[in-house]
């Protein structure tokens, strides 16, 4: 008997949206049958709700151990399930210690015990002086590595220089592991906002597009020199789109992500003092962000990831509204799918596009493209059922994040996550709101 049989008039498969019956055995998709097929066992019919592959977010700051008061594996993975996310990859910084050695990775893995409700993998970190730790981290199973080209905001994760990258990239090229790069090149520490610190325009001017553009140009050169898989995280400058497109056309092993907040919000709509919008790189003007959308739809930008980077409310400086001292990070993990779908549906994109941008293409980056990110026979039955034609207003009380500070509060979004399945087990349902079969997440390695 199958573990589960799901039926829908809108199953989002790689070849398109189809009516289908999904037969799940031992946590995998055993068969995809025509809609009217007779099958042995009870059938869960979700009607016109869409079934998509579970969302994969490879850019999340979970912050445990050491800064568990900022987030943590329990709250992050609960929020993930409530948003249809079945796999997360945790960034190597904001936890203490940072993930720059195999010993630190072991501490992070130990901290997941009894708290892993979704699948979680880890990026290792590249910082000055840790080139000797790279092979050990690879042997321990990290999915790739992350580096900053400007101050990360955390003093124990300093930015890497070009010389540091040159030491590490040949190793990663040999193992075919990606180097993820925060692309901003600045003077040491940057200048910070000039003038009124509450003015968003001043914060935006303090991190110009040129910082990103120069950093992207550097990474294109190094990617070509070392043939090292290189991934540009959270692209916000539209100026970099043309050189990235040219580099990809030359066949370089280069991929690019942007974040939901660069596609959903525009600088013109951010009032002074609204530090809940502070992130780095900053949210730019509408004309810029429209170009990001075009690049995503053209395939130049490969996918979208949240860069979920929460912090306690006091660190966001909500009272003072000071962009200079506020923590730079946006909490959005649970809202990844509806935020992107809200903008995508307005631009004529389809649920098939959404599945590529949130599941299939991120799965490739993290080395899981052979078993996750698609609704196909033999793949893991990590699935999300979505009422794509229903909207909701974001309220603090519905968020599972440890802290409820988010620029999406009071926004009307489209796409209600009705159910989330992990390896064929129902782990979350929207009505009535409930988590089931918790602690089913797995630690991912290459």
Would you mind describing this structure in some detail?
One of its GO terms (molecular function) is zinc ion binding. Its cofactor is Zn(2+). Pathway: Nitrogen metabolism; (S)-allantoin degradation; allantoate from (S)-allantoin: step 1/1. InterPro entries: Allantoinase, Amidohydro-rel, DHOase/Allantoinase_Hydrolase, Dihydroorotase_CS, Metal-dep_hydrolase_composite, Metal_Hydrolase. This protein has 446 residues and is of the alpha/beta class. It has 2 domains: 84 residues, Urease, subunit C, domain 1; 312 residues, Metal-dependent hydrolases (TIM Barrel, Alpha-Beta Barrel). Helices cover 26% and strands 22% of the residues. It has 11 helices and 18 strands. The strands form 3 sheets. Strands 1, 2, 3, 4, 5, 15, 16, 17 and 18 form a 9-stranded mixed sheet that branches. A 6-stranded parallel sheet has the order 9-10-11-12-13-14. A hairpin with a 2-residue loop joins β16 and β17. The longest helix has 18 residues. It is globular, with a radius of gyration of 21 Å. It starts with a strand and ends in an 11-residue tail after the last strand.
Question: Key features?
Answer:
9-stranded mixed sheet, TIM Barrel, alpha/beta, 18 strands, 446 residues, Urease, subunit C, domain 1, globular
Number of strands: 18
Mean pLDDT: 97
Shape: globular
What kind of oligomer do you see?
A: single chain
How much beta, percentage-wise?
15-25%
Q: What is the count of distinct domains? A: 2
- CATH second-level architecture of the largest domain: Alpha-Beta Barrel
Structural class: alpha/beta
Low-confidence stretches: none
Q: What is the CATH topology assignment of the largest domain?
A: TIM Barrel
GO molecular function: allantoinase activity; cobalt ion binding; zinc ion binding
EC number: 3.5.2.5
Organism: Hymenobacter montanus
Keywords: Hydrolase, Metal-binding, Zinc
């Amino acid at each position: 008997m199958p573990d589960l049989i799901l039926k829908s008039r809108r199953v989002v498969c790689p070849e398109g949206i189809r009516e289908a019956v999904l037969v799940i055995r031992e946590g995998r998709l055993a068969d995809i049958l025509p809609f009217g097929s007779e099958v042995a066992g009870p059938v869960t019919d979700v009607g016109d709700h869409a079934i998509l592959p579970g969302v994969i977010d490879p850019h999340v700051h979970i912050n445990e151990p050491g800064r568990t008061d900022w987030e943590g594996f329990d709250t992050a993975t609960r929020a993930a399930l409530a948003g249809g996310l079945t796999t997360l990859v945790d960034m190597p910084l904001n936890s203490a210690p940072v993930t720059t050695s195999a010993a630190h990775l072991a501490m992070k893995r130990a901290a997941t015990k009894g708290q892993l409700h979704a699948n979680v993998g880890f990026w290792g970190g590249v910082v000055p002086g840790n080139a000797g730790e790279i092979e050990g981290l690879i042997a321990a199973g990290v999915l790739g590595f992350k580096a900053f080209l400007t101050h990360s905001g955390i003093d124990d994760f300093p930015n890497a220089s070009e010389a540091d990258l040159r030491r590490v990239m040949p190793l990663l090229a040999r193992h075919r592991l990606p180097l993820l790069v925060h692309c901003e090149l600045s003077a040491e520490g940057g200048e910070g906002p000039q003038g009124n610190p509450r003015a968003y325009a001043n914060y935006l001017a303090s991190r110009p597009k040129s910082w990103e553009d120069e950093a992207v140009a550097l990474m294109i050169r190094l990617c070509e020199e070392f043939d090292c898989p290189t991934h540009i995280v959270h692209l916000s400058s539209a100026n970099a789109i043309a050189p990235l497109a040219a580099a990809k056309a030359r066949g370089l092993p280069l991929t690019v992500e942007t974040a939901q907040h660069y596609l959903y919000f525009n600088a013109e709509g951010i009032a002074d003092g609204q530090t809940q919008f502070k992130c780095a790189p900053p949210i730019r003007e509408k004309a810029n962000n429209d170009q990001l959308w075009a690049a995503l739809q053209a395939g130049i930008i490969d996918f979208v990831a949240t860069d979920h980077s929460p912090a306690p409310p006091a660190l966001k400086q909500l009272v003072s509204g000071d962009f200079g001292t506020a923590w730079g990070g946006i909490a959005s993990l649970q809202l990844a799918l509806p935020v992107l779908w809200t903008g995508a549906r307005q631009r004529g994109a389809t649920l098939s596009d959404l599945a590529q941008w949130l599941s299939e293409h991120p799965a490739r980056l993290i080395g899981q493209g052979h078993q996750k990110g698609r609704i196909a026979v033999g793949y893991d039955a990590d699935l999300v059922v979505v009422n794509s034609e229903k909207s909701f207003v974001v309220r603090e009380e519905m968020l599972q994040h440890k802290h409820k500070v988010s620029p999406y509060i009071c926004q009307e979004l489209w796409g209600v996550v009705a159910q989330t399945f992990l390896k064929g087990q129902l782990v979350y349902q929207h009505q009535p709101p409930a988590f089931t079969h918790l602690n089913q997440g797995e630690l991912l390695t290459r």
